[in-house]
Amino acid sequence: MITRAIFNLTLVLALFSCNKPLEGWNKYVHDQDALNAQMAITKELLNKHISTLASDEFQGRFPGTIGEDKTLEYLTTTFKNLGLKPGNPDGSWTQKATMTGIISDLKAQFITDEERWVMNIGGDIVGNSFQTKSQVNLINKDLVFCGYGVNAPEYGWNDYEGIDVKGKVVVVLVNDPPVMNDGSLDESMFGGKAMTYYGRWSYKFEEGLRQGASGVIVVHETIPAGYPFAVLQGGYAGEQLTIDDPNTTPLSFQGWIPVESAEKLFEMNGLNYQDLKASSIEPDFKSIQLNAKFTSKISNSVRRFSSNNIVAKYEGTDPSLKDEYIIYTAHWDHLGMNKKLKDDNIYNGANDNASGTGMIMAAAEGFSNLKNGSKRSVLFLAVTAEEQGLLGAKYYSINPLYPLEKTVAVINIDAMGNTYGRTKDLIVVGKGNSELDNILEIAAAQDDKYLIPDAEPEKGFYYRSDHFEFAKQGVPALYVDGGIDVVGKGTDYGHKMKDEYTYNNYHALSDEVKDDWDYSGMVEDGRILFRVGYAASQHSKWPEWNEGTEFKSKREESLKSYKY
Asked: Phi and psi of 336, rounded to 5°?
C-alpha cells in the first residue's frame, strides 16, 4: 500500500536525521538475504518448540533435575541439526555453573511484651536462608523499620543513617521511595516513576547484608512489586537456588510478608502501617526500632549440583569481525514440580519461558537459512536459573566464554510469547536506553509496527530478566515484550490479555500451551528480532548506550582495552 511505503520512508528519514551515527542500519535490516531467511520462522516451528518444552515430560524444567536433562538434550539436538557449533570454546554445548539448592522448612513469629504471633508459613510470611547449615535460627532479634531500605549517596538518601542494624532484622518496603516535591513526584529522584535497581527486592537483601543485618523482611504490595503475593507463595514452596560466593555469608533470614501482615505487626507496636509508609518518603525520615522481636527457625535440606547454560554458536564469516559477538538470551528453566500437590503439580512454564527459548531457537533457524552468513558470530545462550535470581546469566557475565568487551549486543527474550494475535506495536522495556531501539524501530516499521515504552516502569521490569546481568557489565541489551494494540481488537483487548496472564497464569500451574493460541503475533515479533540481530551482526558500527544511561560508563571503561 502507498500509505505503508510513505510511513516507512518517513520513519527511516527521521531516524537518519536524528541519529547520524546510525546511517546504514536500514540497509542491513532490509537485506534480502535476511528477509528470505526469516521465513523459516513459522507458527508450526514455534508451536513445536514451545509445546515440547512445556510438556509434562519436561517436568517444569527445574535446574538439576530430569527436566534439565531433557531440555539440554532437546536444545543441543536442535542446534546440531541446524548446523551450529558447540558454543563453549572447550568444544561442548554447555557452560556448567555450580549451584546450591536449598529447601527451607520455616517457623517464624513476631513477639511483643503483650503478644506472641505464631505466623502461618505461606500465608503470613514466606522466606528462607541461603546459609548451607542444616539449622539456621534467629532468636528474639530486634526489629527495625528502615523505610525503603535504600542507601543511595548520589541522591543524598540513606534509610540506614543514624541507626545500628547489626545483628537485627530489618523490615523494608518494596520499590523506590516515591519522593514528592510540592505535591508532585520528583522526577529527579531515583527514576521518578521508573524503578531503579534500588527498588528491587534483591537490592533490599544485598543492602541489609552490607549493613550487618541478620535478616531482611520485605513488605509485599501487588502494585509496586508488579505481581501478586501468590507468586512468592509458589516460588518459596519449592527448592531455592544460589551460586556460591566464598566471600559472603548469606542472611540468616530473607523473606516477604504481605501488607496485611505488616499492618498487624505495626498494630502490635501501636503504630499505623500506612502512616509509617507515608513518612518513609520524606527526606527527614528516620528509621524506627520497633518494640518487637523476631524469631525464625529454619531447617535446611541442602544439595550441591551443577546446572548448565546451553550455548550454540553461529560462526561469522568476516575474518576481522567473527571474533565479535551478538548474543540471543532466553532462560530455559522454570519452577519444576510441587510434589505436595496430588493432581496437576507441574509448573509447565509455557510462556515463561518455553516461549522465549523457542524464539531463540527460531532465530537460530533464521540464521542457519542465510545464504551469505553473518559477518559477526552469533551466540544462542539459553541460561539456567533465571527464576532463582538470574543466576545463569550472572554466572556467564562473571565467567564469559567470550570477552564482554567483544560482545556487541544482547537480545533477550523472556515471556514475550504473544499468543493473542498480531499487534500494531511492540513494548520496549527500558526504551531509550540504547541505540538498539533505533534498529528495532526500523525493523518494526517493515511490519507497520510502532514502539512504545513499558507502561509500568515503576515495576522495574528492566531489572528482572537475564539481559540485566549483561547490562551491569556494560553490554547494550535489548528487552522487548509483545504489544497491546491488537489488530482488529485494539488496546483494551491487549491489556486484558496481559492482565489475564499476569494475575492468573504467571508462575502458576495454568501457564500451559492452550489450543486457542494464535501464533501470528509471535511469528512476526520473532522475525523482527531476528532482523535486529542480523543487522547488528553486519554493521561496522556498534550500537551504544545513550547518554545518561546508568550502564554507559561501564561500557566505556571496558572498551578501553578493545577498539572495534
From this structure: 75, -130
Q: What is the pLDDT of residues 381-437, one digit of tens each?
A: 999 999 999 999 999 999 999 999 999 999 999 999 799 999 999 999 999 999 999
Neighbours of 14 (CB within 10 A): 11
From 549, 555, 559, select the one nearest 191 (Cα to Cα): 549
| Structural contact between residues 309 and 97, judged by C-beta atoms closer than 8 angstroms | yes
Query: Which one-letter DSSP state was computed for residue 459?
Result: G
CA distance 118 to 111: 9
- Give yes or no for a contact between 19 and 26, defined as CB atoms under 8 angstroms apart: no
DSSP 502: I
Distance between CA atoms of 475 and 470, rounded to whole angstroms?
5
Q: How many CB atoms are located within 10 Å of the residue 401 CB?
A: 17
Interatomic CA distance for residues 505 and 238, integer angstroms: 18
For residue 281, pLDDT beyond 60: yes
> Within 19-85, where are the H helices?
25-29, 32-37, 43-53, 66-81
Q: In whole numbers, what is the pLDDT of the chain averaged over residues? A: 93
| Grid cell at residue 226 | 508488579
Q: Are 41 and 523 within 8 A, CB to CB? A: yes
Give the Cβ contact number of residue 155 at 10 Å: 17
User: How far apart, in whole angstroms, are the C-alpha atoms of residue 46 and residue 48?
Assistant: 5
Residues 507-533 as b/e (b if ≥16 CB within 10 A, e otherwise) read: bbbebbbeeebebbbbbbbbbbbbbbb
The three cell numbers locating residue 82: 541446524
* C-alpha angle 236-504-242 in degrees, rounded to nearest 5: 25
- 151: helix, strand or coil: strand
Point out which residues pair with 175 in neighbouring strands.
none
Q: Rounded CA gap, 73 and 331, in Å?
A: 15
The length of the chain is 564
Q: Residue 272: is the preceding peptide bond cis (ω within 30°)?
A: no
Helix axes 520-538, 43-53, angle to 10 degrees: 100
Question: In the chain, what are the domains?
Answer: 2-92+315-559 (3.40.630.10), 100-302 (3.50.30)
Q: List, in sequence order, the alpha helices (H) in 369-509.
A: 391-398, 436-445, 467-472, 490-500
